[in-house]
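Shipment paperwork, digital attachment
Item: protein structure file
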Amino acid sequence: MASKTTIRVPCSSANLGPGFDCIGLALSLYLTLRITPISPAPTTPLPSNCTLSYTSSHPTSVSLHPSKNLITRTALYVLRAHNHTLFPSPIHIAIENDIPLGRGLGSSAAAVIAGVLLANTLAGLHLSRQRILDFALMVERHPDNVAPALYGGLIVAGLREVEAQKETDIPNSEAVNGAGQELETEHSASLPPTQAPNGLGLAAQFPLSPKIKIAAVIPSFEVATASARAALPESYSRTDVVFNIQRVASLAALLSAPIPDCEKIYWAMGDRMHQPYRAALVPGLSGVLETVTREKHKGLCGVCLSGAGPTILVLAVEGIELILKDVEAGFEAQGVSCTSRVLGVAKGASVERER
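Attachment content:
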C-alpha cells in the first residue's frame, strides 16, 4: 500500500416507522477511517500488521486491538474468506467517529461496512457492492442499517433465507466495545472461513423528498440491541400485523413524492411491531408519541424510534425546531437529558485514495 486511504461511512436510522427490519435511512453523521502505510516496516511484527487509534465526539471505550475491534475484526474475516490471514502490509488506522454508540443510529453497521471496505481496498479484492453487502450482512444481520450505510439514502432492504451454517469465525456486531471471541487465534486461523452466500441481501433505494427535513433527538443513555430484541414478543396478533403491512407498503412511495402529503405520511409512520414493546426501555418515548402530533404541529410527517433506540427521529416539512423542543421536553419530564441534531440525508460509503 503506497498511498493514504480514507473510508467514510454514514450512520443510519433503521426500523423507520412501520418498517421493522426493512426500512432505513442514511444520515449525515460519519465514521471515518484514515489508513496510512507504516514505513519503514517495524522490526517487531504488528498484530495483524496494523495499529489503531480512536477519536470521537462521544466519550466511549473502544478496543484498539485488531482482533477485538469490530472494524478490524470484520476486515480480518473478509480477508480470511479470500485467503489472506492479515493485512497485506503494515498500516496505521486512525478511526474518527461522530456516531454515538448504543443510541440506535447504526454505529455497528457503519463499523462493519467500514471493515468490509477496508479489506476490499487493501487486498484489492474488487468486490462488487452486492458482495460487500453480503459480507457485511454476515456480521451485522440488520439490512435496514447495513444497506443504507453502504448505498446511502432511503432504503427498503431484506435478507434471503439461507441454510443455517456454523459461523464461529464471524465477528459479533453487537460486541461494539470489543467483547466476544477473538478471531486471530491458532484455532480460528486453521478453520475454513464461512463464506457469504451470493445475494444474501436485497436492497432498493428510493429518493427522499427534499422538502422533508430530518432531526434526531439523542438521549444521554444507551440501549443495548440485545435488550431491545428481548423486549419483543414471540408472536403478534393478525390485527397488528395488518396494521404494519398496510403502512409499510406505502411509506417509501409517500416519502419519495416531490410534494409530501404530511397527513398520509404521518398515518404511514405508525407502528405496532416494536415501539410499544420498547417503550419501557426508553423513558419518555410513550409520552412523545402521544403528545407530538399533527394536531399541534401541522408540518409534522412523523416521529419514531430510531433503530432499537433510544434516539427519536423527527420528519417534518416545517416547524422542526418547535417539534424538537416538544420531544426534548418529553425526555426532560422523565429526567433524561438529550441533544438534538438536524441532519441531512447522506450518500453511501466512500473510499478515497491519495495519489
